[in-house]
Amino acid sequence: MNETEKRLIDFYQLVPHPEGGYYKETYRSDVLLDQSTLPSPFLGHRHCSTAIYFLLVEASFSAFHKILSDECWHFYEGAAVAIHVLHPNGTYELIKLGNRIDVGEQFQAIVPAGAWFASKTLGAYSLVGCTVSPGFDFNDFELANADELTQMYPEQSTLIQQFCRS
After folding, report:
1. CB-count exposure of residue 86 (10 Å: 0-12, 13-18, 19+)
2. Residue 41 and residue 121: Cα distance in Å, rounded?
3. Which domains does the chain have, with CATH numbers?
4. Are the CB atoms for 30 and 109 separated by under 8 Å?
5. Does position 52 have pLDDT exceeding 90, yes or no?
6. Which of 43, 57, 68 is nearest to 124 (CA)?
7. Helix, strand or coil for residue 156?
8. What Å distances lie between residue 9 and 23, 124, 127, CA to CA?
């Protein structure tokens, strides 16, 4: 880990995330959405929105996972991030999050609710942010099993093997 990464981890008080990388929650809306206003399969109330800082470093990756909410990614600094998205309809999408619009990178991108996704920095490190609505709750988070995900997306088996931990 380089000095910039250590500085970012210390300054933002980032901690390891179960999917990989480091994070810190920076916002949790005071507005609560009642379960009766949320679609199935949400269980219980959710905050209207949440936000985190998320740091990916060269030696790691964010493993395939999915959540029940839409997730908006924001690029801050460092190298671009490759976000691999497996949509529920079976299609694959590669999103490049970064600051080089001349090569197709985007400052913001949406991963829709229910899509499986994984990410990796394309350099030494990437500092990004993620905003989730309805707000993130670990009860809505599921890490992928490589064998099960490969059965759903056989044409992406190589990618799935690269970005799964089990």
Report:
1. buried
2. 32
3. 3-141 (2.60.120.10)
4. no
5. yes
6. 57
7. helix
8. 8, 14, 10
